[in-house]
Specification:
alpha/beta; Immunoglobulin-like; 8-stranded mixed β-sheet
C-alpha cells in the first residue's frame, strides 16, 4: 500500500489583519508529480475554520505491466510466465500543493506533507474599517413568548438591545435597532438595505434576538420559514455586503441555510432551544469587537460548564425538554470584525 498521511495549515500573508489569519473554506489538492507521466491528484479537501486540512491520500505509486515467472512446483515445467501490474520502482514521491479560493490559486512545490510550517498564500483579506461596517439588531421576545415567562422575555428584549449598543456601537459606523412590534420581516430587510446603502459601507452584520422554531423565525407580523427569509433577502440584492448573523433564536442552526442563501457569509445558531444567552452574549460580542475570529469568539463564549448548567436549569425548572444551546457556525468561521476573507 502506497498511501500517506496529509496534513497542513493555510494562512494569509501578514498584514493589518495580523500574522496568522487562517484561510478557511479553500479547496486544497495534493498532487503527485510524475515526470514523463501523468500527474495525479492523490488527495483533495477543504481547509477548516483554523485553516487546517488533513486526511489520507489515495495510492500514489504508479504500476507497470511486468512479465514475471511464477513457479508452480518443483517438477517440470515448474512454472509459467505471467503479466502482472506491479508497483513501479522508478516512481518516487514528489508532491505539489494547490490552493484555490474565491477565484485565486496558489501552488507550493515541493510540498512536504509532514511539515509543521503553514502554507502562506500571497494574498490578504478585505480590510474593513469602522466606518465601513454597520450592525442591525432585532429584539422581539415578549410577543410570542409564554405568558408565565413575560418578565424574563422583557429583560432579554431590553438587555439584548442595550448590551449590543454598549459593546458594539464604538466599533461600528451605526447600530440600528428594530424592536418589539416593529420587528417585522419587512422592517428587518429594510434596515439591512438602509445600512448597506450608506456611502462606503462594505459589511452589514446582524443580531436576531427573537423566538424561533425548527426552520421558522417568528417575526412580529408572523412566522417566516427559512426559504421565505432567503427569498426576501435575495430580493433586496444585498449579497456581498451581508456578513455575520448572530441568531440567538431557538433552533437557530435550522435557519442557517436560508440566511446563507440570502447572502450572509456566516451564521451562528443553536441546535435546539437556546438557553445560555445570559452567559454567552456578552463574551461573544466582546471577543468579536476585539477582532478575534468568529470561531474563537464563539468557543470562548459558549464554555461547557455554563452552557450545560443553563440547559439543565431550563429542562428541570422551566420545562424545556429540548434545551440545547450548543451553537454552530455555518459559513466562514474565520471572519473578524475588520475582515472578510477573499
Amino acid at each position: 500500500m502506497s498511501r500517506i498521511s496529509i496534513a497542513g495549515r493555510i494562512q494569509h500573508f501578514p498584514g493589518p489583519w495580523g500574522r496568522d489569519l487562517p484561510l478557511c473554506g479553500a479547496l486544497v489538492e495534493v498532487i503527485d508529480l510524475d515526470p514523463g507521466g501523468t500527474d495525479d491528484v492523490i488527495w483533495s479537501g477543504t481547509s477548516g475554520a483554523d485553516g487546517s486540512f488533513s486526511g489520507t491520500s489515495a495510492e500514489w505509486r504508479d504500476t507497470r505491466r511486468l512479465r514475471v515467472w511464477v513457479q508452480d512446483s518443483w517438477r517440470p515445467p515448474r512454472g509459467h510466465w505471467e503479466d502482472r501490474s506491479e508497483p513501479d520502482p522508478g516512481d518516487v514521491l514528489l508532491l505539489k500543493l494547490r490552493v484555490r479560493h474565491s477565484g485565486r490559486q496558489h501552488e507550493v512545490f515541493p510540498f512536504a506533507n509532514a511539515s509543521r510550517h503553514p502554507v502562506t498564500v500571497p494574498w490578504g483579506v478585505q480590510w474593513i474599517e469602522r466606518d465601513a461596517r454597520t450592525l442591525v439588531v432585532v429584539n422581539d421576545t415578549v410577543q410570542g413568548g409564554q405568558a408565565r415567562y413575560r418578565g424574563l422575555y422583557q429583560f432579554l428584549e431590553a438587555s439584548g438591545d442595550a448590551t449590543a449598543h454598549a459593546i458594539c456601537a464604538p466599533h461600528y459606523r451605526t447600530v440600528r435597532s428594530v424592536n418589539g412590534a416593529a420587528a417585522t420581516l419587512a422592517a428587518f430587510v429594510g434596515a439591512l438595505t438602509e445600512c448597506a446603502a450608506l456611502p462606503g459601507v462594505q459589511a452589514v452584520d446582524a443580531i436576531l434576538n427573537m423566538h424561533g422554531s425548527p426552520d421558522v423565525l417568528h417575526f412580529a407580523d408572523g412566522p417566516v420559514t427559512s426559504e421565505a427569509m432567503s427569498l426576501a433577502l435575495q430580493g433586496a440584492n444585498l449579497a456581498g455586503r451581508l456578513r455575520l448573523l448572530y441568531n440567538t433564536s431557538c433552533f437557530g442552526d435550522s435557519h442557517a441555510s436560508g440566511l446563507q442563501k440570502g447572502g450572509f457569509d456566516a451564521v451562528i445558531g443553536s441546535r435546539q432551544v437556546n438557553c445560555n444567552s445570559v452567559t454567552e452574549y456578552v463574551p461573544l460580542l466582546s471577543a468579536w469587537v476585539d477582532n478575534y475570529t468568529l470561531a474563537y469568539a464563539l468557543n470562548t463564549a459558549q464554555t461547557e460548564p455554563q452552557r450545560l448548567s443553563a440547559d439543565r436549569f431550563a429542562r428541570e425548572q422551566l420545562g424545556f425538554s429540548d434545551a440545547d444551546s450548543f451553537k454552530t457556525i455555518a459559513g466562514n468561521a474565520a471572519l473578524t470584525i475588520a475582515t472578510r476573507a477573499i
